[in-house]
Design a protein that fits this description.
The chain has about 425 residues and is mostly helical. It contains 15 helices and no strands. InterPro entries: Memb_transporter_dom.
Amino acid sequence: MARDKRPPVVRRTALREGLVDIDGARIAEATQELRHRGRATLHDRLHRVRMAGGLAVQAGLAAGLAYFVSHRLLGNPQPVFAPISAVGTLAASVGQRFRRTVELIVGVGVGVAVGDLLIYFLGTGAWQLGLVVTVAILLTIFAGASVAIVIQAAATAVLIVTLSPSTQNLEIPRFVDAFLGGGIALLVTAVLLPLNPLRVINRAARPALDLLASQLDATADGLRNRDRATIQGALERLRNNKEELATLGEAIEGAKETATLSPARWHRRDELTHYAEAADPIDRAMRNSGTLIRRSVTLVEDEEPVPDPMPDAIGHLAESVRLLKHEFAAGEEPEKARERSLRAVSEAGRAYGEGVGFSGSVVVAQVRTTASDLLVASGIEQEEANRWIRTAFGEQERPVGEPAEPGEAPKPPTAPPIG
C-alpha cells in the first residue's frame, strides 16, 4: 500500500471528512506486535526466575554457611575462598556437583603449585602475574583437563600472586577452603535444602513441550485453511528450540543427582527414571515434527490435496504432547497421551486412504514417526510402540496420490487397548 505523501494538514482534513487513514492499520499492527513481544519477554523472564529460584536460595545458604564455618570455627581471618568455592560448586555444573568439587580442588592444587614455584624464583609483579596465569593454563590444557579445572587453576594462580605479598601462608587455607566450600555445597544440596526433583523437571519440561504442542496446533490450523504463512511461522518457532531442550536436559541431570545424594528424595528415583528415559524420544519428536511442518509448507505450496483427517491427525499429536506433560507432572501413567498418539496415527491412516500427494505422504509418515517417539517417551518399548503404530494405521494398499473410489469409504483403523 502506497504511503500518503500529502502534507499533514491535508491528511488531517481528509480524516475529519471521514476518509480512511492508510497508515492506521500498519501502525496498529506494529503496536500490537510490540505489546505481544513485551508480554512474552516478561513471561520468559519470570519463568527463568522461577527456574533459578531454588538454586539461588541454595547458593546463598551454602555461601553463608561456608563463610561462618571458615571464619568462626576454623579461625580464618579472610574467609573469601570458602564461599566462592561453595557458590562455584552449586552454580557452575548443575547435575555434576561431585565432579565439580573434584575439579575445584584439582584446579586449586595446580594454581597453588605453579604460583608458589614461580613466585619463589621470580618474585611478584605484573609480568610475573601474567606468566603465572599463562603457565597454569597451558599446563592444565596439556594435561587434558576440563575447562573448569583450567579456569580454577588460573584464578587460584592470580590469587596466590596478588595476595601473597600481604597474606602469609595462603596455600593451606586455600586448600581447606576448597574442600570446605565444595563439601558444604553438597551438604546443602543433599540434606539441608534438597530441591523437589520432579518439580524442577516439570518446570524445565513445560517450555519444550508447550512449544511443540502449540506449533503442531498451528500447523493443523494452517493445513485446514491452506495458510502457508501460519505453517511457516510454526516451523521457524520450532527451529529455535535448542534452549528449551538444553534446559530440560540439564534439569534431568540435576534431578538425578538430587535423587542420588538426598535421602529425602530417594523415593523419587523411579519417577525420575521415566523422565530421564523420555528426554531422547522428546528430542526426536521435536526433530520429526520439524520435518512434518516443513513438508506441510511444501504441501500447501504445491496445492496438493489435504484430506480432512490429516490436520486432525496433527491436532491429536499436539494434544498427546499436552497430555504427556500433564500426566508426567501428576506422576500418573501416561495412558491418555498414548491413546491420543494412536488416534493421531489412525487419522493419518484415513488421510492416506482418501488420497494424498508426495508431500502429503511424507506428512503422514512423520505423524507415524512422531507418534512412535511419543509412545516411547511415555515408557513403551520401541518394538512394541512400532507394533501399536502399525495396528492403529491399518492396512492401506491404495497407491499414494490415488483418490478413493466414488462412494467408497476407507476402512477406519482401530487402536489397540491401552493398559
